[in-house]
Amino acid sequence: MSSFLSSSIGKKLIMSLSGLFLVLFLLVHLILNSFLMFDSTGELFNAGAHFMAMPVIRFGLQPVLFGGFIVHIIYAIILTLQNQKARPQKYASQNLGNSSTWSSRNMFVLGGLVLVFIAMHLMHFFVPIQIQGNVHDDYQLVKNLFTNGSTGLVYTGLYVVGAILLGLHLAHGFWSAFQSIGMSNIIWRARLEKAGYIYAIIISGGFIIIPLYLHFFA
Ligand code: HEM
C-alpha cells in the first residue's frame, strides 16, 4: 500500500482525490455565498454562516478541509519537481498549443496564485470570524470589504482576478482529476472536459458576480 502511494500513479491519485474534495467544497461555499445577493438584510447569509460554525462542522469538517488543501499543495510540489527531473530540458521546437491547453501547462503557477488569493481571503474573513471571534455580523463584514470607498473597489478587483485564476485552474483540474482516477476513455474524456468547463464557469462566474454585486448594488 505505502509503495503504491509513493508511486507516480499513487501520488496522482491522492492529488485527484484531494482536488475533487476541494471541488465539492467550492460548490457548497458558492451556494452559501450566493445568499449575500438574495437577502440585503443579511439574515439569510448569517444563518448559513451560523450553521457552518456549529461545533460538528467547525471541528469535524474544517480540519479535513484544511488537510485536503495541504495534501493537494504538497503533492502538487512533489509531482511538479518529479516531472521537471524526468524532463529537465524543453524540446528544441515546442508547439504544445495543439495538444494541450494553456491552463493545463500552467497548473502549478495558477495553483500558486490561487493560494496567494486564499491566504489574503482567510485574513479578511476566516481570521476575524473564527480566530479572533470578534465579529457579530458576518454579512456586514463581507459587505464592508467590498463597499468601503476606493479600497472596496480594489478588493472587488482582487476578488474578480482571484476568481478568474481559480476558474482557469479548475477548467483543467476537474477533468484531469477524473482522468487520474481512471475515467479516461474517449467518450468520458469529452464529457468530463465539457463538465469541467461548465463547472469552472459556474464557480468562477459566481465568485466574480458576488463582489461586483456587493460593490455596485448592495
Ligand atoms: C465572493 C467571493 C468569496 C466570499 C464573499 C467568501 C466569503 C467567505 C467567508 C465569509 C468566510 C468565513 C466563513 C466562516 O469562517 O464563518 C470564508 C472562508 C473561506 N473561504 Fe471564502 N469567500 C469567497 C471566495 C472564496 C474562494 C474563491 C475560495 C477558494 C479558492 C475560498 C476559500 C475559503 C476557505 C478555504 C475558507 C475557510 C474555511 C471556512 O471557513 O469555511 N473562498 N469565505
Automatic annotation (TrEMBL):
GO cellular component: membrane
Origin superkingdom: Bacteria
UniProt-listed CDD domains: SQR_TypeB_2_TM (cd03498)
Species, as recorded: Marinifilum flexuosum
SUPFAM superfamilies xrefs: Fumarate reductase respiratory complex transmembrane subunits (SSF81343)
UniProt keywords, alphabetically: Membrane, Transmembrane, Transmembrane helix
Gene3D superfamilies (UniProt xref): Fumarate reductase/succinate dehydrogenase, transmembrane subunit
Keyword Membrane: yes
Protein name, entry field: Succinate dehydrogenase / fumarate reductase cytochrome b subunit
